[in-house]
Amino acid sequence: MTEPLDPNRGAAPDAAPSEAPTAEQVKLALRKVKDPELNLNIIDLGLVYDVMVEDRTVVIAMTLTSPGCPAGPQIMTDVERAVRNMPGVDDVVVNLVWEPYWTPERIEPRVRAYMGL
User: Fold this and answer.
1) CATH homologous superfamily for the domain 23-115
2) How many other C-beta atoms lie within 10 A of the C-beta of residue 53?
3) Which residues, other chains included, contact 15 with Cβ-Cβ below 8 Å and sequence gap of 6+?
4) In angstroms, rounded to a whole number, what is the distance separating the alpha carbons of residues 76 and 101?
5) Would you state the pLDDT for residue 29?
6) Per DSSP, what are the bridge partners of residue 91?
7) What is the pTM of this model?
8) What is the tens place of the pLDDT at every residue in 71-112?
9) d(CA 98, CA 64)
10) Where do the domains of the chain lie?
11) Within the chain, what is the greatest distance between any pair of CA atoms?
12) Most exposed of 3, 78, 98, 112 (fewest Cβ within 10 Å)?
């Protein structure tokens, strides 16, 4: 005689939800997001102004190199995807801001030196 199927049989016990990442962990993940025109990550470029984590929601304030940046939509999509894929993240809010306006002085000094700026 066969036993009735138990849909919970062999299932892993309820795992504790992952803790929300820290702002520093989010910034580390954002180092993988590059401006495709410059081939530099958005952290080193100084495009990310602020990262806040509240509960399991990550809020990012960032800018682009210019309001008409042709890579803007791709960068914004990549930012949202990079953070949403992190363990412990339920929601991502990316706020595009224009103040302060981005200038090359926002680029990390070591990267500016490498670029000859």
Assistant:
1) Fe-S cluster assembly (FSCA) (3.30.300.130)
2) 19
3) none
4) 17
5) 98
6) 57
7) 0.81
8) 999 999 999 999 999 999 999 999 999 999 999 999 999 999
9) 8
10) 23-115
11) 78
12) 3
